[in-house]
Amino acid sequence: MEIKEPTIGRVLHSIQKNLKAPKGQTNKFGGYKYRSCEDIVEAVKKLLPDGYYIKLNDELFLMGERHYIKAEASICVEQESITATAFAREAELKKGMDLAQLTGATSSYARKYALNGLFGIDDTKDADHESVSNPTEKSHYPAIRAASEKYKKDNTAKDVVPHVSSSDKEALFHQIEQIIDEKKITKGAITAIKKGVTKDSYPVGFTVPQMIKVRDKLLALKGYEEPF
């Protein structure tokens, strides 16, 4: 009897059913666990049959005055492939911020969600992720909506933002985490900066303008030093 090779659709179904991608990363700023793009890729590699591979592509494009990254995640074998796509918007570039750092953080974010779509990973079921990416759905975060309206009306505000977006907020979380890692900023410095911006000790409750202030203060540090 001839044994037929599994189709790419069956292989993808098998991976989706058996994939276990634990949250292997800790966000030092937010204090929550999350899975990175690399965590997902490493978990998927263990389940790929011979001849199959994962391909990740990025495309940067301008829409209005903001840059977006379109990420594609594909499972491939020979001439066949199945692809999922995700988009992420780059947060506003501030003075002193490295452009490559900003683009890298946004690319990682977009690739992760393309992989989520391809392999059926539902981060919305995770309490930690939900508290970051959907803050306005929490009953104790009405201040975020109020802050959004305030900054829309006050065009003279130094750190004005057009709106509070969950994608903006999560992108800022990833940006801040990358700055902390690259500069090797101490926990004491991070805590001091957070306290200097707001009395809210849990970063999930920060507004986007507050997070931008934290990010800019972290960027101003040389690393390995206390801010005050």
Rg, Cα atoms, Å: 20 Å
Helix content, binned percent: 40-55%
Instruction: Report the count of strand segments.
Output: 5
Structure annotation, total helices: 8
Distance linking N and C termini? 75 Å
Taken from the alpha-carbon principal axes, the silhouette is: elongated
Order of helices and strands: HEEHEEEHHHHHH
Q: Strand order within the widest sheet?
A: 3-4-5
Average pLDDT taken over every residue = 73
Tell me the number of structural domains: 1
Major sheet attributes: 3 strands, antiparallel
Class inferred from helices and paired strands: alpha+beta
Tell me what portion of residues adopts beta-strand conformation.
Answer: 15-25%
Q: Can you tell me the residue ranges where pLDDT is under 50 for at least 5 consecutive residues?
A: 125-165, 224-228
List keywords for this structure.
8 helices, 228 residues, 45% helix, alpha+beta, elongated
Model description:
The structure is a single chain. The protein has 228 residues and is α+β, with helices and mostly antiparallel strands. The chain has one domain (8-220). 45% of the residues lie in helices and 18% in strands. It is built from 8 helices and 5 strands. The chain has helices spanning 8-18, 37-45, 99-119, 127-133, 142-153, 166-183, 187-197, 208-220, and strands at 25-27, 32-34, 52-63, 66-77, 80-89. It has a 3-stranded antiparallel beta sheet with strand order 3-4-5, covered by helices on one side. Strands 1-2 form a two-stranded antiparallel ribbon. The termini are far apart. 26% of the residues are buried.
